[in-house]
Amino acid sequence: CVDDDIEAQFFAALEGFSHDERSVLLRFITGRSRLPIPTLKLEEMGRSDDARLPEAHTCFCQIDLPSYSSVEVMARQLRYAMAHCVAIDTDHDATPEPWGSDSE
What we know:
This protein has helices at residues 4-15, 19-30, 71-84, and strands at 41-48, 55-57, 62-67. By secondary structure, it is an alpha+beta fold.
């Protein structure tokens, strides 16, 4: 479970996000950019660290959040993570590479 302060920061950060950014955040957390999705879970990371990025677990629709010093830091770190972690996308059928194949 997440600390009330972290949850409040998370939702305050979301208020400043555009519709498109919210869609990207949803994809970051769940692997999907649109509803319906299962319930999102917010979890607290062990320590306060403004340099640490949030971590998403798409299989569990969960995001782990450090305790940031401000809403602005949380928004910045969420935007960075959303922009640089785009490997998971369950909106489209993916054709996985066969096990053991070399995709290089």
